[in-house]
Amino acid sequence: MATTPPPFQRARSPEHKQQRRREILAAARTLGLRDGVRAVSLTDIAAQAGVHKSAVLRYFETREEVFLQLTAEGWRDWAAALTASLRPGTAPGEVAATLTRSLVERPLFCDLLAHAPLHLERGVSLEAVRAFKLTALAAVDDIRAALTAALPGLTPDGAQDVVAAVTALTASLWQIANPPETLARLYAEDPRLGHAIVDFPPRLQRLIAGTIAGATAG
Fold it and tell me: Which of 52, 103, 149, 200 has the most CB atoms at less than 10 Å from its CB?
């Protein structure tokens, strides 16, 4: 026998409001991983969180702000992982492998890297995008420090270029490697289009290795 869910209770205390924000972000995270960021609407997020759409809008300006918050979370998490895993004097090939592995382990972040500059940053207020960019800049600074410590031949400017190249490559290759259903069916049906299928991890690692080699040359 089906049970009726308890009526929605508005969060009133600061602790309950923070909990509600976490629940909304968790709902968006779950749906983004399952369906892809592009396919998830604000209504979907609200339903997954068990609240009305208007309740989500009490905590976030737009759908874009929800996912921009998750992108900021992704930057912090990625930077912490690389800071912990990169060691001074690491061979360039192992640095490339570590960067690749760290991104493959974070599929939602890979997806969000493409959406952030194209859509998410453009659908929020000035203050929201400022907070996001400051978070991302702090993460880049941490990753740059980890890279220059791991690779003595890499300058801070070179490390900044590596981070920019790696995130741009990841954003593009992830979308190509995870096509929507229509494109996936097209690739399966027409062998002439097989070149469009990308094996994400090895392709990314080769390109990162080339980027590092170029940044440390001379």
Answer: 103
What would the two tokens of residue 197 be? 């299928």
CATH code, residues 63-216: 1.10.357.10
Residue pair 135/75 in contact (Cβ under 8 Å)? The answer is yes
How far is Cα 157 from Cα 170, in angstroms, rounded to an integer? Answer: 20
- How far, in Å, CA of 140 to CA of 159, rounded? 9
| Residue matched to tokens 């170029």 | 214
pLDDT for 116-147, tens place per residue?
999 999 999 999 999 999 999 999 999 999 99
As given in the structure block, the two tokens for residue 181 are 């259903």
**Contact assessment for residue 141 and residue 62, using Cβ atoms and an 8 Å cutoff:** no
64 φ, ψ (degrees, to nearest 5) = -60, -35
User: Quick one: 12-60 is in which CATH superfamily?
Assistant: Homeodomain-like (1.10.10.60)
User: How far is residue 85's CA from residue 170's CA, in Å, rounded to a whole number?
Assistant: 19
Residue pLDDT, tens place only, 19-57: 999 999 999 999 999 999 999 999 999 999 999 999 999
Residue 120 contacts residue 67 (beta carbons within 8 Å):
yes
Cβ count near 211 (within 10 Å): 21
Give me the pLDDT at residue 20, please: 95
Sequence spans of domains, the chain: 12-60, 63-216
Mean pLDDT of 166-186: 93
| CA distance linking residue 84 with residue 163, whole number of Å | 17
